[in-house]
Amino acid sequence: MDALHTAGIHFAEVLQAGPPWLEKFWISVTSLADPKCIFTICFPLAYFLDRKVGVSVLWIGLVSEWLNVVLKWFLFGERPFWWVHESGLSRKELVTLRQFAVSCETGPGSPSGHCMITGAALWPLVTALTALASKHSRSLVVKLSPFGAYTLLLLVVGLSRIFVLAHFPHQVVGGILAGAALGWGLQGHTPATRTMGFFAVAALALLLSSLALHSLVIAAGIDADW
């Protein structure tokens, strides 16, 4: 893993060595793509366009947020900002990296929550837009444009997370793949016809199960908050 981490650090160096104007762009992207935006911006917009799509965005966002936390407890994953010092790499070779206000994230880093939760929750919205585009146009470019925008968005979000030293490249790739797979797998199981009571119970179940899993991890002698 050290070789993979070292390669990730060098990749972050290349990104940070880019044109100065890109710095503001990457920081803006990583801030705007925070997973909470799924619930505060994407869900209301999707719900306004189509109730079922909106509920699907909310449901998948909720489940993916829970799963991301659980996966991090078991997969751990170093954060570049901390690893470069803890590993001793900064003492072995010259490492030219910059710190930003959003760099010092704590907790495990694998997989990337920004990529996984965004990728999962936006899947139903993208498929709905693709169906709408296919209905009104025969152009293959128009039909594929929603998925093209989706792919580009996740790529940019992933690069922004590497730029601010919050994640290694392999954590970003893992987050994107897990998010797309989760969105694809859960879209057909959206409880769109359920009452508010169902969602309240589901949220409580996810909360209690995460607390129980955390307790089991601690009881097993694993420091989930390392």
Tell me what you see in this structure.
The protein is an all-alpha fold and 226 residues long. It has one domain (1-220). 74% of the residues lie in helices and 0% in strands. The longest helix is centred in the first third of the chain and has 25 residues, at 51-75. The model has no long low-confidence stretch (mean pLDDT 91).
The residue fraction in helices comes out at over 70%
Give the beta-strand count. 0
SSE arrangement, N to C: HHHHHHHHHHH
Average predicted confidence as pLDDT: 91
Largest sheet: none
Low-confidence stretches: none
- The overall number of domains is 1
Q: Please tally the helical runs, counting DSSP H or I stretches of 4 or more residues.
A: 11
Task: Give a brief description.
By secondary structure, the chain is an all-alpha fold. The chain has helices at residues 2-16, 20-32, 36-49, 51-75, 80-86, 89-92, 113-121, 123-136, 140-163, 169-187, 196-219. Pathway: Carbohydrate biosynthesis; gluconeogenesis.
